[in-house]
């Protein structure tokens, strides 16, 4: 049987099974490395844009397995992109992988660390798996089938008032003065209204917190498609409303997103913050 995404259900079932096994085996590698002092650290675009030997090892491991199982699929990965390969999202089934989301957390021993795996078909996310091997949490979703944490169904909260909300956002790795001022201005606008702001250090896990009702809203500028593809599906399948920061559907390659427990809250947050366009993935 074909899904309306044009890929047979059997292929999506097989993809889900392989991705879940991959998340757990990669999780073992991440967990072992998390306990080591020497993380094999280097930097990328800025002194705060970190990468470790484990990020590269896990991405290699993931792509080798997925290419062998699904040779006709396409692949987008954080470290592949960092090595200069252009991230191109087409209608072809495309895996989007962040081998370690929360690399800075990983380096510092802060336990918000995960692998994020998404499969897009016709530019729509069909499968999202986020596994945090340190806290032993596996978030999973398939489009139209709900969201789960360690096999138990999860549901977002119902908050629709920013003045009663806990909001997640991130500083990110960029350190240009203008971008930092933009981020601080938005944080100031939000904190003037909300109960609080938290930074998890992982966009993927921020979306999972929203999904399970641990936070009411999340917004970020500067993320990449591999940071949010799986989390966006998990949050929506748990009942969250996600959108482009200025409304309309999330554009995975646009590097900005708002998610909230309710559409009303997402729109209030959108009208509270300033917006900027970033170079696309
Ligand atoms: C990080 C994100 C974080 C975001 C950073 C970065 P990494 O991913 O998840 O939330 O603010 O810009 O993209 O580098 O740890 O995979």
UniProtKB/TrEMBL annotation:
Reactions it catalyzes: a myo-inositol phosphate + H2O = myo-inositol + phosphate
E.C. number: 3.1.3.25
InterPro entries tied to this protein: IMPase, Inositol_monoP_metal-BS, Inositol_monoPase_Li-sen, Inositol_monophosphatase-like, Inositol_monophosphatase_CS
Keyword Hydrolase: yes
Residues annotated to bind Mg(2+): 78, 98, 100-101, 227
Name of one Pfam family that matches: Inositol_P
Cofactor (UniProt): Mg(2+)
Pathway(s) the chain acts in: Polyol metabolism; myo-inositol biosynthesis; myo-inositol from D-glucose 6-phosphate: step 2/2
Name used for this protein in its record: Inositol-1-monophosphatase
GO annotation terms (biological process): inositol biosynthetic process; phosphatidylinositol phosphate biosynthetic process; signal transduction
Gene Ontology molecular function: inositol monophosphate 1-phosphatase activity; metal ion binding
Annotated family: Belongs to the inositol monophosphatase superfamily.
Keyword Hydrolase part of the UniProt annotation: yes
Keywords: Hydrolase, Magnesium, Metal-binding
């Amino acid at each position: 049987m074909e899904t309306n995404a044009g890929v047979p259900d059997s292929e999506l079932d097989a993809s889900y099974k392989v991705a879940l096994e991959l998340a757990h085996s990669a999780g073992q590698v991440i967990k072992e490395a998390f306990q080591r002092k020497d993380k094999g650290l280097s930097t990328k675009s800025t002194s705060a844009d970190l990468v470790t030997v484990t990020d590269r090892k896990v991405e290699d491991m993931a792509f080798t397995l997925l290419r062998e199982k699904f040779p006709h699929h396409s692949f987008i990965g954080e470290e592949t992109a960092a090595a200069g390969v252009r991230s191109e999202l087409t209608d072809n089934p495309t895996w989007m992988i962040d081998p370690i989301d929360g690399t800075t957390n990983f380096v510092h021993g802060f336990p918000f660390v995960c692998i994020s795996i998404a499969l897009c078909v016709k530019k729509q996310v069909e499968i999202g798996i986020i596994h945090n091997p340190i806290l032993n949490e596996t978030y999973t979703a398939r489009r139209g089938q709900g969201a789960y944490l360690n096999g138990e169904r999860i549901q977002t909260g119902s908050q629709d008032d920013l003045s009663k909300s806990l909001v997640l956002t991130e500083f990110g790795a960029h350190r240009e003065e203008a971008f930092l001022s933009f981020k601080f201005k938005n944080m100031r606008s939000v904190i003037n209204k909300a109960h609080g702001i938290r930074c998890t250090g992982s966009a993927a896990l921020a979306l999972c917190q929203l999904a399970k009702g641990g936070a009411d809203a999340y917004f970020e500028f500067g993320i990449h498609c591999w940071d949010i593809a799986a989390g966006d599906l998990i949050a929506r399948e748990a009942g969250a409303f996600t959108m482009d920061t200025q409304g309309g559907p999330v554009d995975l390659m646009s590097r900005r997103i708002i998610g909230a427990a309710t559409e009303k809250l997402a729109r209030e947050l959108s009208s509270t913050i300033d917006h900027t366009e970033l170079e696309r993935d």
